[in-house]
Amino acid sequence: MHIAVAGNIGSGKTTLTGLLAKHYKWDAHYEDVDDNPYLNDFYEDMQRWSFNLQIYFLNSRFSQILEIRKSGKTVIQDRTIYEDAFIFAPNLHAMGLMTTRDFENYFTLFNLMSSLVQQPDLLIYLRASVPTLVNQIQKRGRKYENTIRLDYLKRLNERYEAWIGTYNHGKLLIVDVDKNNFSENKEDLREVINKIDAELHGLF
Q: H or E stretch including 78?
């Protein structure tokens, strides 16, 4: 089985991925942040590096999905291939940080890759307001994230909501991070686990 965790920067994807992997004894596949050769450059000059970064993520996530399906294990994945294509790349394009030529080239490649892979068996979407995202981004203190602007997070949130509103590729579970503090509260985590059990093993 392939479980995927989606959500904006700072919504708690990596934390939840780790907690669920531990609870269910699932294999965890994390987003390649520390070894990403473009991330620092991107946050310093988004216009110059946006296309390179998105291609890197696309390649990385496509490889992950192929590995997940080949492994025959139940895997939980931190962020999906769809978020880059429907949220991050179009947002960069709309902000004038990626040219139309690059965006069309990127999207053609995404369409080809996505036609070759299966959708996740369950998508867990972490919904969070901008203040919650900012609070969590500040807590983890990644240097390159210091320059992220509020309007950037707000635009991404709007795109996430639009994407989730039309998501019909399989089972979907929405967790409201403003109300559920699964990272620090065991009862909140238990609530998430109960909902996952109902989605994966429930009768309805």
A: strand 75-78
Give the relative orientation of helices 13-24 and 186-201 as an angle to the nearest 10 degrees.
70
Name the burial class of residue 104, with classes exposed (0-12), middle (13-18) and buried (19+) by CB atoms within 10 angstroms of its CB. exposed
Which residues are marked as active site? 78
48 pLDDT band, cuts 50/70/90, is very high
DSSP 147: G
The pTM of this model reads: 0.90
Token look-up 């590729």 returns 169
11 exposure class (CB count in 10 Å sphere: 0-12, 13-18, 19+): buried
What angle (nearest 5°) sits at the alpha carbon of residue 51, between those of residues 150 and 43? 35
Residue 188 is predicted with a pLDDT of: 96
Domains, the chain, ordered by start? 2-201 (3.40.50.300)
CA–CA separation, 54 vs 60, rounded Å?
10
Which of 136, 163, 143 has its CA nearest to residue 80? 163
Q: Which residues contact 52 (CB under 8 A, 6 or more apart)?
A: 38, 42
Residue 21 near residue 76 (C-beta atoms within 8 A): yes
Contact at 8 Å (CB) between 18 and 189? no
Distance from the first to the final alpha carbon of the chain: 19
